[in-house]
Amino acid sequence: MKQEQSLKILLWLVAIGFFMQTLDATIVNTALPAMAASLGESPLRMQSVVVAYSLTMAMLIPASGWIADRLGTRRVYIGAIVLFVVGSVLCALSHSLTQLVASRVVQGLGGALLLPVGRLAVLKTVPRERFLQAMSFVAIPGLIGPLIGPTLGGWLVEVASWHWIFLINVPVGLAGCVATLRYMPGPPSMAVTRFDLAGYLMLAFGMVALSLALDGLSGLGLRQAGVLVLMIFGLASLAAYWLHALRRPDPLFSPQLFTVPTLRIGLLGNLFSRLGSSCMPFLIPLLLQVTMGYSPLQAGMMMLPVALASMSMKRLTTPLIMRFGYRQVLVVNTLLVGLGMASFALASPDQPLWLRIIQLAAFGAVNSLQFTAMNTITLKDLDHGMASSGNSLLSMVQMLAMGMGVAAAGAVLAAFTAYFERGGPTQTLSAFQATFACMGLITIASAAIFWQLSPADRAVTAAREAPDLSD
């Protein structure tokens, strides 16, 4: 009985960690204009706050499993919570955009370890026959975080200040540390294979360089020559990692993974599809507040239709894939996601509220179907030996695409803002409209990647499918 109670508390502990991670990825978006005003920055140049968090998580994910095995899951999980809380406090104390971005990096270091290490603790503790049920329970708060994040962020900005979107993590984190010490099993650190440090550094540098090159077009103020140099160094570093992995017996991500066609297509589709769609939680609250006069709370509440439609769509995903197959669903749905994004190019202050709600809900529904379908096709054909590595690679690509998508959207928005000469709200609205159209086209272009799937790929046996890893 006592063991069962400890197991339930462990699941709650990991679930809350997942909730903190997903909440903080979305709660910031509606507060960006308030942060910009407080820090003396333009709200259109605040994408670095989002990019820093996502990129840091993408960098650390490949090393998370090795760190947990080397130091022990309980020790690493406590360290993750402490880093997350310290980063949150530093964010609240920031007096400049540079300080805030640096603090988000610290917060991202903790956030990157919360879910994978928590999942590993559940894997080592829960009986195998109950693992799927346990992970389904842990995943529920991950869906609730994005649901309440934008609205909670807007409410805190209005009733207190933007600093409280970070300070609310402190009591939750302290309680999490106490609960971890008491209820999470603390197996000793174990002998692990030698970590591929050289490969990790090449991969991490490549991701950072490419993301900074995109962000440098707007947020960092780099000139074209600096952006070009960063991009070349980033591509060269990724190419060097690939060559390194080909000759190393135990690389971070084995090139053997890419012999699986569905994983190869799924990863590329994830990357390029998310480059477009991941910018929407960043762009929509900015559009509503900067050009249409919405308050932070109102802008946050307008994201509720997206989240509710996203959760409602989960029931229909498997029947649709079983009926039409992955290729047809993903090609058609990718086009719908891109068109849904491009439809925001028609947004204006005169647009009826009911029409805007329908527009947001429709985007949330097709975006949810997109994430679930492309995540499942990526992992479904991996054997047991490749599953863990493939899952980590998918998680890394998701976070990388999220950061690069926001950076790309910021760069495009900055370019159109300059083109329209910042002439006032009308010109700013035109810059947003053009940005939505461009980012929608990027997503539409990624449909060609999913066309390479075999028409025979279907969700024939839903019980054997990979767990839902959608956002």
UniProtKB/TrEMBL annotation:
It comes from the Bacteria. It is found in: Cell membrane. InterPro entries: EmrB-like, MFS, MFS_dom, MFS_trans_sf. Keywords: Cell membrane, Membrane, Transmembrane, Transmembrane helix, Transport. Residues 10-458 form the Major facilitator superfamily (MFS) profile domain. SUPFAM superfamilies: MFS general substrate transporter. Gene3D superfamilies: MFS general substrate transporter like domains, Multidrug resistance protein D. GO terms for cellular component: plasma membrane. Coiled coil: none annotated. The chain crosses the membrane at residues 49-68, 75-95, 101-122, 134-156, 162-183, 195-214, 226-246, 294-312, 324-347, 353-372, 393-419, 431-451. GO terms for molecular function: transmembrane transporter activity. It holds the Pfam family MFS_1. PROSITE patterns: MFS. It is a multi-pass membrane protein. NCBIfam families: efflux_EmrB (TIGR00711), PRK10504.1 (NF007799). This is Multidrug transporter subunit MdtD. It comes from Variovorax terrae.
